[in-house]
Amino acid sequence: MQKDMIVGVVGAGTMGSGIAQVAAQAGHSVVLFDTRQEALDSSKQGLAKVLDRLVEKGKLTAEASAAIQGRFTYATDLKAFAKSGLMIEAIVEDLAIKQKLFLDLEAIVGKDAVLATNTSSLSVTAIAGGCKVPDRVIGLHFFNPAPLLPLVEVVPGLATDPRHAAACVALLKDWGKTPVLAKDTPGFIVNRVARPFYGEALRIYEEGIADMATIDHAMKTLGGFKMGPFELMDLIGNDVNFAVTSTVFKAFFYDPRYRPCFTQQRMVEAGWLGRKSGKGYYSYANGAVQPEAANDSVLHKAIVDRIILMLINEAVDAFYLGVADRKDLDLAMTKGVNYPKGLLAWAEEIGFSPCLAALERLQAEYGEDRYRPSPLLRKLVREGATSV
Ligand code: NAD
What we know:
With about 400 residues, the chain is α/β, with parallel strands linked by helices.
């Protein structure tokens, strides 16, 4: 994958536009396609605006900005991809529609082209399964906003040729990204390991242990997270967050650890989607008075410990099940979702024994499989290990 390789991007929405910008800024010619001309127009205007701002801030010269925009071709005919060496698909999250697109692309691109999907919740193997040549299909999961967030999960499907994964990792590093390798399992790394950040916070709220403002406050001040779970859900959109949770739950064949919460479902049903609808867990109306956090340091610590414990258990289990290696698991959470620390490093800092004991207490108290400790955590404690 050389600098002169043409990168094709399908879907000029939020992700496609961002990914196309990243590729063009790295020096590639980019072909950006969408079925809707309005999407292409608004993507083009959006890019000009973003680059203008970078020029104003002195981060980019006017010449560089013009060169980046000059590398773009906007297309409404898939045939424009005939010379693309790497295709990145970022269209609607629908398996049948993605499979159809990949089949169409196979008939257009050259035999050496790699076909990547930016899916966040579908199986890469399933998308590849609909192709005639599945070994060149791979997942490249960028995070939103793609030009700003360094993490990209590289997800080979069952049939993917490992050489393509290695080439994508090298290319992404060239682009200044932080690629991590993830197994093709539901949620890959981030969307799996991060589930308890939302789910356990909702559970603590539903049990009446603390209100949302208190949970958010504790997670920021004591936990060191940039945003609290409820603030973050409001930013992501409760509809989007609930959909990801529901998809992951189903994809894990209804493992109770990933069970969605009624609280969030009701928010979606009410249309209280968060910032974008003006109301979510918090009100975003002008002059709205925000709820205050309870001033109770013992409560704050209990909340933070419980959520972090569940995150650690998830990360340890993901490592145990070979979802990613140690380095990539911690990188994914610090670079993809800005966690203050990698979760495996965090577990080592706390010690495996206190983590296991606390999880066992929760499991005994609730009698729920949700709190079952990862078998690896038990093993590490048994062996007296101090690192994963
Ligand atoms: P979006 O709705 O902003 O954009 C999708 C674009 O694809 C639209 O412009 C639409 O016109 C176009 N499109 C739809 N069907 C098409 C088709 N058959 N052929 C060509 N174009 C088509 O969506 P998005 O948020 O950019 O998400 C795109 C993909 O990226 C999804 O698979 C999503 O799961 C994934 N993703 C999204 C995020 C995120 O935070 N938004 C993060 C990571 C991954």
